[in-house]
Specification:
The complex is a heterodimer of chains A (about 260) and B (about 325).
Chain A lengths: L6 E6 L3 H15 L4 E7 L2 H7 L7 E5 L7 H8 L7 E6 L3 H10 L3 E3 L4 H10 L8 H7 L6 E6 L2 E6 L3 E6 L4 E5 L3 E4 L3 H7 L4 E5 L2 E4 L3 E8 L5 E7 L6 E2 L6 H6 L4
Helix pairs in contact in A: 2-3, 3-6
Chain B lengths: L17 H22 L3 H35 L2 H26 L8 H25 L1 H14 L2 H15 L3 H19 L6 E2 H19 L3 E6 L8 E2 L4 H13 L6 E10 L2 E9 L10 H16 L4 E6 L3 E9 L6
Parallel strand pairs in B: 2-4
Antiparallel strand pairs in B: 1-3, 4-5, 5-7, 6-7
Classes of the chains: A alpha/beta (about 260), B alpha+beta (about 325).
Chain lengths: ~260, ~325
């Protein structure tokens, strides 16, 4: 903790007046402590694109934003090698506020008071990192994107792009039409979170229902027949295990 | 708090409302059937009895409905008990009149029997009591409208974000901040006012515009409004706070979850003796928003029923990407 190094703050809010107000207040704070505005973002996607190149120490993150709310953004931020401290801002959100109190997560209520902002920023460098399990508990809804850390940056994968998820030894492979990603999450947790979107065709594999074109019979090395999944945009054919054969009938798209 | 003090204590029904007229018809004809059933249960004889009772009751009933509809405005200007006395006096006059006319035309009719007068008074009393009770049963919806305005209908989210937006203007654009605070004050004045009486629709539209200009401050380009009110009769009466809560829903569910701009369409026009209101906003069913909109809708529905009975309709239509609320109310003129 060097006093000379200015604290770099990223402001994330979808409403222009809210960003203006924070900019004014941060200018006031800058008179009392070394501080710089590292950038401004109008939504979660933009914030994640700016990080970590903008080298922010703190993110002031609005909770209610279109497309991806602040809690989900915070979940993705945690995948960075050195995630910045997150201070949530919100006008009113009874449910989240309770959780913040329980888990000692810092937050600012809009309209934000100068003294309160100053206090929060002074503590920012010593804030404990947010725990992914706590964030997930706070926001039980499914995420709108999966995210992976690629060479220090966060890459977002829209859920609609995902063809299948396959558990490997330590990772889950996420396959989209274009490429694949390695995800450090558990397949069964993903299955729970995105219940209904994917169907389990094998102990280690979940396929997006929308990505399935149909099912075909195939013969394996021993000459035994089994079903395989044919997908719309991915050439690979995935085997359906004997235990999961019933899904062929349930989805009923035999080619 | 004196929210419910004599809110609807003894309100006379609107005798020009179709729903009220239907209710009177059903109750009186029900009473005729009951009277016939008291005399006999033999189907054929019952039929005869019913025709007999009806032939005496129907002319009085029809004439009463006509006279009450004509005297409606005058009756409503009287105090409740005076109006009740006037209604009873009118009924006695009509019954006596019909009887003597009948006596004159059909000489076969008997003398004006005492039980006739008794039945008439009883029925009139039952009807007045019924409409009084019905008014009381529905009036909590009106009191609630006032309370809810502060509790839930104006979402805390809106209040605090608006104050935040005004604060953001203070330094750079003090004049816009002044305007915004004035709009906010007007909005809250109406929200806290006694909103039990019908108000001119032009006032509702003005309030809606003030509300939207506050939202515009926060949402800027993202919020677009299309007003189609050129053919709106400005003097039409509407229960207060019908438009604003619906617009708040439209902003919350239709505009805020989008990053791209969205348009809210508002159409108000007159079609004969009816006023049509249509509100349309973009909508994505997968938006992760809480359902808070049913409460506002349920309250509006109750208030429309209380003011207009069956002559008002409200319905919602959701398509793949739009959400629409359609309201039809009878055209009542202010000051009529």
């Amino acid at each position: 903790m060097t006093a000379e190094q200015p604290l770099r703050v990223l402001v994330v809010d979808d409403e222009a007046p809210a960003r203006n107000r924070l900019r004014d207040l941060l200018a006031d704070c800058a008179m009392k402590m070394p501080l710089e505005i590292a950038g401004e973002a109008v939504n979660g996607r933009e914030a994640l694109a700016l990080l970590p190149a903008c080298d922010a120490d703190v993110v002031l993150l609005d909770i209610r934003m279109p497309e991806m709310d602040g809690i989900e953004v915070a979940q993705h931020i945690q995948k960075l090698d050195e995630p910045p401290a997150v201070i949530f801002t919100t006008a009113y959100d009874a449910y989240a506020l309770k959780a913040f109190e329980v888990h000692a997560i810092d937050y600012l209520l809009k309209p934000i008071r100068l003294a309160r902002l100053f206090e929060a920023l002074s503590r920012a460098r010593t804030l404990a990192p947010l725990r992914p399990d706590v964030l997930r508990e706070m926001r039980p809804d499914a995420r709108s994107h999966l995210s992976v850390n690629e060479r220090g940056r966060i890459h977002l994968i829209p859920l609609a792009d995902i063809a299948f998820l396959k558990a490997e030894l330590k990772y889950v492979t996420v396959r989209t039409a274009e490429r694949e990603f390695l995800l450090e999450e558990s397949l069964s947790k993903l299955e729970q979170e995105f219940f209904g979107r994917f169907v389990r065709i094998h102990r280690n594999c979940l396929v997006a229902k929308d990505a399935i074109r149909g099912f075909e019979r195939a013969t394996d090395a021993d000459g035994e027949g089994h079903w395989v999944v044919v997908m719309n945009d991915v050439a690979e054919k995935l085997a359906v295990s004997r235990r999961q054969q019933h899904i062929v009938r349930e989805l009923g798209r035999i080619l | 708090m004196s929210i419910n003090q004599n809110a609807n204590a003894g309100a006379l029904p609107n005798f020009r409302n179709l729903g009220i007229l239907l209710r009177i018809l059903v109750i009186v004809d029900g009473a005729c059937l009951a009277a016939a059933l008291l005399k006999t249960t033999e189907p054929l004889v019952l039929m005869e009895e019913l025709i007999d009772v009806s032939s005496q009751a129907q002319p009085i009933l029809m004439l009463s409905l006509l006279v009450l509809a004509a005297a409606n405005d005058w009756l409503h200007r009287l105090r409740y008990w005076h109006a009740i006395s006037a209604v009873v006096a009118l009924e006695l006059a009509i019954t006596t009149g019909v009887y003597y006319l009948g006596l004159h035309l059909f000489s076969g009719m008997g003398a004006l029997e005492r039980h006739w007068i008794f039945t008439l008074l009883l029925l009139t009393g039952v009807l007045i009591g019924y409409f009084d009770l019905r008014g009381r049963a529905l009036s909590p919806a009106l009191a609630e409208a006032r309370l809810q305005a502060l509790q839930a209908r104006i979402r805390p989210h809106f209040l605090f974000n608006s104050i935040n937006a005004v604060l953001s203007l203070m330094r750079q654009e003090p004049r816009r901040a002044e305007q915004a605070l004035e709009d906010l004050a007007d909005l809250f004045r109406v929200l806290m006012a006694d909103n039990r009486q019908l108000a001119p629709i032009a006032r509702e539209v003005k309030l809606a515009k003030q509300y939207l200009s506050i939202e515009q401050l926060r949402l800027g380009e993202r919020l677009r409004i299309e007003w189609n009110v050129a053919h709106m009769p400005a003097d039409a009466l509407i229960p207060p706070l019908v438009l604003q809560p619906l617009l708040e829903n439209a902003v919350y569910h239709g505009i805020e979850p989008r990053t791209e701009p969205g348009t809210i369409d508002i159409l108000i026009n007159r079609d004969g003796e009816q006023i049509h209101l249509v509100l349309r906003n973009p909508y994505r069913p997968d938006g992760n928003h809480h359902a808070g909109n049913r409460m506002a809708l349920a309250n509006i529905r109750e208030r429309l029923a209380l003011h207009f009975d069956v002559e008002a309709r409200i319905k919602t239509v959701a398509t793949a990407d739009t959400y629409e609320v359609r309201i039809v109310i009878p055209y009542l003129k202010a000051g009529a």
